[in-house]
Design goal:
The complex is a heterodimer of chains A (about 450) and B (about 1000). Helices cover about 55% and strands about 0% of the residues of chain A. Chain A has about 450 residues and is mainly α. Chain A has a two-stranded antiparallel ribbon with strand order 1-2. In chain B, strand 25 (about 620-625) and strand 26 (about 630-635) form a beta hairpin. The chains are: A mainly alpha (about 450), B alpha/beta (about 1000). Chains A and B meet through helix 14, strand 3, helix 16 and helix 19 of A and strand 2 and helix 32 of B.
């Protein structure tokens, strides 16, 4: 059996080598993401450098006010719902600004020329009046705009080139790295093979003294074939191998049959790289904000593009794309034929064709509102840690077994629901203290989901 | 049990012919070829083994190949800008109206999928007829034109407008008439549009003409009372109703309204208060109304006038020389006169005749009975039919002279339904400008130069005023699918109106006319669907016609028609005047009496046909002096001897692939006298009847009693007195602690109209299978209405079915019971125990579930079902090119209810008790955190039933309508002796035999 064990050793080594190989590739693959992220954090918008009067306010206090009140419609360096504010101190007099910020609609109504010009330029959407601001508050805000606006204007511009260069070099690294790893791996394999054969030679020499070198060589060759022959002749081994392979293949086949049509982990590439991780995770937006119909209807519904626009009219992630609008957000604009300059929807719309991930067959009726609104089940129970998914994948198997197992164990959320009071009172078992699961109330019956 | 009557569903069964007995042995129409295979020839033939292996091999290969395909990616495309009112998966309901009655249109994601009655509506009270239920398919009709046509070629609207304006200007300049030919227009806005058009083109003449005309009644009322109107009849106020050939429950004027009224005096509530109206019907063919009559007397059309003359004589005490050659009818008239005079003030006589003089006579009778102001309302008239064929006849004559410059057809198709279509077509050729507003290139439109395609009513704005003081709105529920334009809008454009948009026009018109009186706003109307102004007070009415002169005319008229066989033309309940001829739901709806689908036929009395030497399904030629058609013969018990009945509304040539060439057009017969000749010709044509398909083998399933018996003992005839069957349970009792859904059906209320069948089709995506498949007994209707004839020979008690055939008689005196039959949701369901794969199982809510995806199609369940309500999908009817008359295109598939799966080939299906509605109702209660109240969930059949014959609800709620109904003494369960414990209870039919049979 010695030969056999050495074969096994070989196998172990080979596996080890491959494991190292794969590991190294994957670490490389992960590694490439990190620098890319940091390098993108560069902003380069050049506004006309200017500053004449420095407003007499506290920029620190202004910052808080600015962030609390202004950012929903304004940014410093780009047009949002309202104009970019950097340089506003130069464009208008402080007295005018005080009046305007406190009550813009009144100014428009009074027919102030400057006010009318802005009003008409921005789709005749009047600026919200802020009568609660004192003069000092406004001055503080203006001071903040002055300080920050100037910073923005003098921000370094030359980062983009570097990012571009580093981008390409990373892909080169990857290729070189791969080649290097393959070569190293091959060398290791060769080396190990050499070592093994020498060791074996040494062992055979010890066993058979007095054989000539020539004979020795043929012996080695013969020996190689003999190993296989010997192995085949070993009935126990053959039986063992056959048994193993039958069990392995059988169990794989069995698993495969059971999982036919089960798409757990299905993660198609979507037309827009929408990240639930960012929206639901980092930004803590409630599921209901976008998937509102899950609380009312059988469909959870992908939100219509106008829901996206509630935020993305303003949120354009320009800070990550050198002042450009994020290419993914641009896709929403393209779908709606939205022009960020005029802020109007156009005629040439193209609906977004998302790839459906959770595909229940048509023969099964599933209603979101029953589960989400009535039963009060968290979305994550079926959809998994959605707030951690940069790209959504199918978390649950969505098989009937999975449905039924849950119906068997999940208690009905009947508290405070008048509908259930009468139903539960009618059940004899429940009075005896049986746990009220969906199954007890008929949740396993065919016609409840199949009609 | 106590009845000695025998019931039979068809003549085959009645005669117990060997063929029928043979057929009935088998569950399915065609036997399986097992015998052939088992016989020697089968085994020794060269095919089996090798072919088996080949097929197996190929099959395995094909399956494994098919399994290799990657499952396709499904796309999910959300709205770009979602309309605020739309939530995917939640239906929206909009008010609109169909034929004047207010309806609610159910839309899903912007497409109408179902029509329901508006529960607040005073005309339909939430119910609807078959035609309205089917109308949603008309919207998704692929035969509709996609763009307007000019000289048969598709053209943009600018070209049509230019053509129309030029044509109209030319006619106007030449001093020629411009005719707008319409069917009845009772829309206030459309009338306003026509008058504004007339203002622009003063030569315009509006001619309203209806395929089925009621001008006889209108003219008679003008003659008798000086009021040229169609009155509103109040069947609910009539204790004695006598109808001479008026099918008021099926097709006469406003059947939906009349059914409601009629049944209110005959339903469970009325019976409980010991009241039931009496209804006597004199008629030629057996109509739906005739089947409901307490006494029915078969009468030839020519005898109808004489019968009325006799009735008038009896009531007024005058003598008459006119004698009926019909002893039964003569005796009946005398008894009827007695009953009518006993019920003065609560009596009503109606006639289906369109002859002015006959109607004057009816008016005279009703005057004598004091019906005006009580059962007939002339002060609040009906505007449902205002057409006058005399006007149209005059127009055709004028067209012939060439003095008509332009003619516009709005909602009218005289080339098909005018009695002298040929004369009309010749005359039309002499008109320079011919425009049709049809949505199809139909018989008339194809003769026109321009087809300015109109919207479907579900795409259009509009209004209607069907009866005095009742105004309903039509609002669009979908954007126009094709490049169509509302006809009224076209008229506005061509008359250079300042208002170009019909919506604005309708709104302005309402705000100016109706709304100030109703005290409502436009938005109120859109939400409510209609406004109802208080009824006008009735004024005293005196009959001022010349009765004696009328009687003389009626007598002389009736003498004209006696030669040959008399032809009786009637309106089919399903297809009406034939306008919806391309609607597969209506084509496959079995006739209420004959149960024939997809055809019209020549109905003959079997005994009379025997005399003529004609067998059933023989082809015969019906020939008048100007027109002849070949039709198959149907044996119709109850048909008057020496008469033949033919349905109108069939034989369309240019309506679409569903209706083209279905049946024969009988309209041209309207032109001539009623007499025809019948000649048997070569050929045999099997009609697709659903009649004998589901035989109960003479079991005791219909129970009835007379009103007198009922008064004595309400449970008479129901088998509910005395001992119950001993029941045994093989199984552990299955509890229904939560809900227990059950149904109660009142056989006394059901008129057999078939609205429930179409409502069920639309709600549950029940496929239409076509004529050939119906002949093979493969119709898929989940609910059917069984119609049982019964025959009671005087002084003869019949116990054996075979004996019925031996009875001699004219077979004119039959009575009928309609029994809606659907899955009974048995507690001990025989289907459940035989299913090898547990595809059909019971629920804890008392419903027999059917899991389509489990079904492997053994059909054991259908074999074991004593009610024969299970349906097998022999094909993918909704998506198979061989069944091109229904859903075989993506456009029509938009009408499917997305909450119900379409069943695949090889799967069994049946009534699910609208489980999608139950589940939706429960969910709504759960979301709102309230209890589920009685009436929150309604079945599609129950909701639409004009007679409220179907009651559904929770038996665990003792206060529910159904619980109360099932406690009625009349309730029995069909085949309860089998101990299947059905969930549907039936109430016995009660017949008010009145004086003469008592």
């Amino acid at each position: 059996m010695r030969n056999f064990s050495s074969e096994l050793k070989k196998l172990h080594k080979l596996i080890a080598v491959y494991a190292v190989f794969i590991l190294s590739i994957s670490t490389l693959a992960y590694a490439q993401d990190k620098p890319a992220d940091t390098s993108n954090a560069a902003i380069a918008t050049a506004l006309p450098a200017a500053s004449a009067s420095t407003p007499s306010g506290d920029a620190k206090a202004g910052e808080a006010l600015f962030k609390a009140n202004c950012t929903s419609c304004h940014a410093l360096n780009k047009r949002v719902l309202g104009p970019a504010l950097a340089g506003v101190n130069n464009r208008h007099s402080e007295a005018w600004l005080l009046k305007w910020i406190k009550n813009a609609p009144a100014m428009v109504a009074s027919g102030d020329k400057e006010a009318l010009k802005i009003y008409n330029e921005y789709n005749q959407a009047a600026m919200t009046p802020f009568p609660q601001f004192s003069d000092d508050d406004v001055k503080n805000i203006l001071a903040y705009i002055k300080v920050e606006g100037d910073k923005v204007n003098t921000a370094p511009v030359a980062v983009t080139g570097v990012t571009a260069a580093s981008d390409t070099s990373y892909s080169n690294y990857m290729i070189f790295g791969l080649i290097a790893v393959i070569i190293i791996a091959l060398l290791v394999i060769l080396l190990l093979n050499k070592v093994i054969s020498t060791l074996e030679n040494l062992l055979t020499k010890k066993d058979s003294v007095g054989i000539t070198l020539y004979e020795e060589e043929t012996e080695v060759q013969k020996d190689k074939l003999a190993v296989v022959k010997k192995l085949i002749k070993n009935k126990k081994l053959v039986f063992f191998v056959v048994l193993c392979s039958v069990i392995t293949l059988g169990s794989f086949g069995w698993m495969d049959l059971w999982n036919t049509g089960v798409q757990t982990g299905y993660q198609p590439v979507q037309p827009i790289k929408f990240s639930h991780q960012l929206h639901a995770g980092t930004n803590q937006i409630k599921c209901q904000y976008c998937h509102s119909s899950a609380w009312k209807s059988k469909h959870a519904s992908i939100p219509s593009a106008n829901v996206c626009m509630n935020c993305h009219k303003y949120v354009q992630a320009t800070e990550k794309y050198n002042g450009e609008i994020s290419p993914e957000i641009k896709k929403i604009y393209a779908a709606l034929d939205y022009n960020p300059e005029t802020q109007k929807y156009g005629e040439n719309t193209r609906p977004i064709e998302w790839i459906r991930i959770h595909n229940l067959p048509d023969l099964a009726y599933f209603n979101h509102s029953q589960h989400v609104k009535v039963a009060g089940i968290e979305c994550q129970k079926c959809h998994g840690p959605i707030q951690e998914m940069a790209e959504v994948y199918q978390y649950s198997p969505l098989t009937m077994k999975w449905c039924i197992n849950c119906h068997r164990v999940t208690e009905v959320n009947s508290k405070g629901n008048a509908y259930y009071d009468k139903i539960l009172a009618a059940h004899e078992d429940i009075k005896k203290g049986v746990k009220v699961t969906a199954a007890v109330l008929g949740g396993l019956e065919c016609g409840k989901c199949h009609y | 049990m106590d009845s000695t009557k025998q019931y039979w569903k068809g003549l085959d069964e009645r005669n117990n012919s060997t063929e029928f007995v043979e057929k009935n042995k088998h569950e399915f129409a065609e036997s399986l070829p097992i015998e052939d295979v088992l016989q020697e020839a089968g085994l020794s033939s060269p095919t089996p083994r090798r072919d088996f292996l080949k097929t197996m091999g190929f099959g395995l290969g094909a399956v494994s190949l098919a399994a290799c395909t990657v499952s396709p990616t499904k796309k999910s495309v959300p709205y770009l800008i979602k309309p605020e009112e739309v939530t995917a998966g939640i239906p929206n309901y909009y008010t609109s109206s169909f034929k004047g009655a207010s309806i609610l249109v159910k839309t899903r994601e912007g497409r109408p999928i179902k029509v329901e009655g508006n529960p607040a509506c005073t005309i339909n009270s939430g119910s609807l007829d078959a035609q309205a239920q089917a109308s949603v398919l008309d919207l998704y009709d692929t035969a509709k034109l996609k763009t307007p046509l000019l000289n048969g070629v598709e053209h943009p609207w600018e070209d049509i407008d230019a053509y129309a304006k030029a044509g109209l200007a030319k006619a106007q300049a030449a001093g020629k008439t411009i005719a707008i030919v319409t069917s009845t227009v009772n829309s206030p806005s459309a009338k306003a549009v026509i008058s504004s058009f007339t203002a622009k083109y003063p030569a315009t003449k509006h001619v309203a003409y209806d395929a089925i005309s009621y001008s006889g009644i209108i003219n008679a009322n003008k003659n008798s009372f000086g009021k040229a109107v169609l009155p509103q009849y109040k069947f609910n106020k009539a204790n004695v109703i006598v109808s001479f050939g008026a099918d008021f429950l099926g097709s006469w004027i406003s059947p939906l309204q009349y059914t409601k009224q009629y049944v209110s005096n005959r339903n469970a509530t009325s019976l409980k208060s010991k009241k039931m109206s009496r209804h006597i019907q004199f008629e030629t063919g057996l109509s739906l109304t005739g089947t409901k009559a307490d006494s029915r007397i078969a009468l030839k059309p020519s005898e109808e006038g004489i019968a009325l003359v006799n009735l008038y004589a009896e009531l007024s005490g005058q003598a008459t020389s006119a004698k009926l050659n019909n002893a039964i009818a003569e005796k009946a008239i005398k008894l009827v006169a007695k009953e009518l005079s006993a019920a003065k003030g609560t009596a009503l006589v109606v006639s289906g005749s369109n002859d002015e003089h006959t109607q004057i006579l009816v008016n005279a009778i009703n005057s004598l009975l004091g019906s005006y102001g009580t059962t007939i309302d002339l002060d609040n008239p009906s505007y449902q039919y205002t057409g006058n064929e005399a006007d149209f006849m005059a127009l055709v004559a004028q067209m012939k002279t060439g003095s008509v410059g332009a003619v516009l057809f709005l909602d009218s198709n005289p080339a098909y339904n005018y009695c002298d279509a040929k004369g009309f077509i010749d005359a039309l050729a002499k008109v320079a400008t011919k425009i049709s507003f049809s949505d199809k290139n139909d018989e008339t439109a194809s003769l026109c130069d321009a087809v300015a395609i109109n919207h479907n009513y579900l795409e259009a704005w509009g209004d209607s005023n069907p009866v005095e003081g009742y105004y309903s709105i039509i609002q669009p529920t979908i954007n126009p699918v094709y490049n169509s334009r509302q006809a009224e809008e076209s008229l506005l454009l061509w008359s250079d109106s300042t208002v170009k948009d019909y919506y604005t026009f309708v709104k302005a018109n309402w705000e100016a006319t109706v709304l100030p009186f109703a005290g409502k706003t436009w938005n109120d109307v859109l939400q409510l669907g209609f406004v109802s102004l208080p009824a006008k007070a009735t004024s005293p009415i005196t009959f001022s016609g010349d009765v004696n002169a009328t009687i003389a005319i009626v007598i002389s008229e009736s003498k004209k028609n006696t030669a040959g066989i008399e032809l009786h033309l009637y309106n089919s309940v399903a297809l009406g005047d034939g306008k919806q001829g391309n609607n597969p739901f209506l084509q496959e709806l079995p006739d209420g009496v004959s149960k024939v689908t997809w055809d019209n036929y020549a109905a003959l009395n079997p005994k009379y046909a025997q005399k003529l030497g004609i067998s059933e399904f023989d082809l015969v030629t019906l020939k008048s002096d100007t027109y002849a058609i070949d039709l198959p013969v149907l044996f119709q018990p109850g048909q008057a001897h020496e008469t033949v009945s033919v349905a109108l509304g069939y034989g369309r040539q240019k309506v679409g692939k569903v209706g083209d060439g279905v049946g024969k057009n009988a309209y041209p017969f309207l032109a001539t006298n009623a007499a025809v000749t019948i000649t048997k010709i070569e050929g045999y044509y099997e009609l697709a009847q659903t009649q004998t398909h589901h035989s109960f083998e003479g079991r005791d399933i219909i129970r009835e009693a007379t009103f007198a018996e009922y008064l004595e003992n309400p449970s008479h005839g129901s088998g509910n007195h005395g001992e119950k069957h001993k029941t045994y349970d093989l199984w552990k009792k299955f509890e229904q602690p939560g809900h227990n859904w059950v149904m109660a059906i009142d056989l006394n209320a059901c008129t057999g109209c078939g609205a429930c069948i179409v409502a069920c089709n639309a709600e549950n995506n029940v496929p239409v299978v076509g004529k050939d498949e119906v002949v093979r007994r493969r119709e898929m209707h989940w609910i059917r209405i069984d119609r049982y004839y019964s025959y009671n020979e005087e002084n003869k008690s019949i116990t054996e079915e075979k004996e019925i055939g031996e009875i001699e008689g004219k077979m004119e005196n039959v009575s009928v019971v309609h029994q809606p039959m659907m899955c009974q949701h048995c507690e001990h369901a025989p289907c459940e125990t035989v299913c090898p794969v547990l595809a059909t199982v019971h629920s804890s809510e008392g419903i027999n579930h059917m899991a389509y995806n489990r079904c492997v199609g053994t059909r054991y369940c259908a074999n074991n079902c004593p009610y024969k309500v299970r349906r097998f999908n022999w094909f993918n009817y909704w998506n198979d090119s061989r069944f091109d008359n229904y859903l075989n295109n993506e456009f029509t598939q938009l009408a499917l209810n997305p909450d119900v799966t379409t069943r695949f080939r090889g799967v069994m299906e049946k009534c699910s008790m609208c489980i999608q509605r139950i589940q939706a109702g429960k969910l709504k209660a759960k979301i709102d955190k309230t209890t589920l109240k009685d009436g929150d969930v309604k079945m599609a059949c129950q909701q639409t039933c004009p007679a409220n014959a179907i009651i559904f609800g929770d038996a665990n709620d003792p206060e529910s309508e159904v619980s109360i109904a099932l406690k009625d003494e009349r309730v029995y369960y069909v085949l309860e002796e089998l101990n299947v414990q059905p969930g549907v209870g039936y109430m016995t039919k009660i017949t008010n035999t009145g004086l003469h049979e008592a």
